[in-house]
Amino acid sequence: MMHKLISGAFLLSSFLFWGCFPEKGPQTPEQVKTHLVAEFDSLQTVAGQQLLKSAQHGDSTAVRQAFHQTRQAYKQIEWFTEYYAPSASRELNGAPLPEIEIEETRVFDPSGLQVIEEFLYPTWQETGRPELVREVNAFLSTLKRTRVILDESVLTEGHILDAAKQEVFRTMILGVSGFDTPLAKTGVKETAVALASVGEVLSFFGENAALQRLLKDAIAFTAQSADFDAFDRMAYINRFATPITSRLVAWQKELQIPFVPSALALNPTATSLFDSAAFNPDFFTGTLEARTSPEKVALGKDLFHNPILTAGGRTCGSCHQPELAFTDGLAKSNALQKGKFVSRNAPTLLYAGLQHAQFYDMRSPTLENQAMDVMANKDEMHASVAEAAVRLSQKPAYVAAFKKAFPTMEQELKPRYVMMALASYVRSLAPFRSRFDLYMRGDQRQMNGQEIKGFNLFMGKAKCGTCHFMPVFNGTAGPSFSTTEGEVLGVLQSPGSKNPVLDPDEGRYVHNKIDELKFAFKTPTVRNIAKTAPYMHNGAYKTLKEVIDFYNRGGGNGLGLNLEHQTLPSDELHLTAEEQKALIAFLHTLTDPPL
């Protein structure tokens, strides 16, 4: 039945691609909106008449069939909900994990299609039918509210095209990784439906033979995939997805449709996820004043390596050394007191600016807050940003440098300028110059067969890409990059011991007493991971082989712990020795040249 459903989507898209194209004009947004209304109605019908009824009375086969039909109908509108109604989209198809409001110390139960999936896979339990019916009704209620958002939305050509491009990015980051279909493993086939929906929307802008041919071929490539684990994700990205987004940007220029203002994480003119300037670093800053500039970066770099900040011998570079990818190579960093150590491993600062939470326990929302916290910590720098500002204000050269970096600065050199300068430098540490990046930009000499296999495993069977999101490979999920996630893994105190013992560090729970956050830690980037050993927050894992073995066996619970809120699936990944070597080979391609 799944084959028939996918084939139907493919035939529909094929009809649109080869049919008559309307001329682009001022009616285009309204035409797209009318099309969306029809798609919403179709989803409402499928979910209400098929999924709900089968959830109430059908057997497992009927419920699963209706579920897949509903998911595919949702993929027809996903480009809109994710872009125009992200909060509703999380309720419709968000991760099946509780949503935690830190400020309010509240936990909200998850909802949507991924929650429904857990009732159906890996096995159907008749006893879960009442809860399943409740979840389907909640989905229908959210869908109704989302339809109101559509009715009230004002669509523009620039935003529609940007949303379409982001949907293609979404298939690359989340779709083919199986992020939203972890149990049913239909993410690759659903990518075909998502691409068809993009094609339908683009048809309202006129005809573009090259683009429609790329979309048709991409749909065929994904729709015909029979084995989720074996799907060639690298081929999909390089042969189809990236050429589609590149051609889409070129077409928008040809149509003379203005690009949306650069207020999102991805620059609207980026042709690819792997453009060197694809990211807008200012999206991750807390204030307009904190936005980066060459002057701020240069000043921050000087301060980063200058003991004037502490009036002692220690600098930021003491624990974040450029030659070690801005780590220190220790399990836990040296404390100020000789022979003592701080409580956690020093994370890399490379790409630290492309996330919304700092420190392993995510206690600081910005790099500015992080700088202040580290400066004040009695074990790390035991200094004061305010005192550092006073010392700097007594040096005319620094006063001039600060005035150049912050033209609106008053006479007084305030502490916040020190923090913003340091943060600007750290935000500049996102080079995207690894062999992987060069390969994705077209230099086929940069990666070999084993490394490409490792990438496909990372994004597929090994499930790494469902937590370490491409292209930054950290816990900030694209293409919106609006939130940074943490995970409960069950990290061991001493890997390899016969009797596994959970590391006692309670992570985010130390600062936020919410049970679901106990032993939760931020998902860091794995870029430059070949240089950042030892691993995990406690530095207990000395090699990548140890880390991969830990994941392969299902984390702490897979190793025999009883961790109630572990977010990492406890099932074994069944990675062979050869596959684990390929994964490590791929991870080595993420190493940037020295800065």
TrEMBL record:
Please give the InterPro entries that the UniProt record associates with this protein.
Cyt_c-like_dom, Cyt_c-like_dom_sf, Cytochrome_c_Peroxidase/MauG, Di-haem_cyt_c_peroxidsae, Imelysin_sf
Kindly give the SUPFAM superfamilies that the UniProt entry links to this protein: Cytochrome c
Per the record, the major location class is other
Give a GO molecular function annotation for the protein: peroxidase activity
- Keywords associated with the record: Heme, Iron, Metal-binding, Oxidoreductase, Peroxidase, Signal
- Asked if the keyword Chloroplast belongs to this entry, the reply reads no
| PROSITE patterns linked | CYTC
Q: Which Gene3D superfamilies match?
A: Cytochrome c-like domain, M75 peptidase, HXXE motif
- Span of domain Cytochrome c: 295-422, 449-591
Q: Could you name the domain of life of the organism this protein comes from?
A: Bacteria
Q: Name one Pfam family in it.
A: CCP_MauG
Q: Where in the cell is it found?
A: Cell envelope
Is Iron there in the keyword field? yes
Name of this chain's protein: Cytochrome C peroxidase
Species the sequence originates in: Rufibacter sediminis
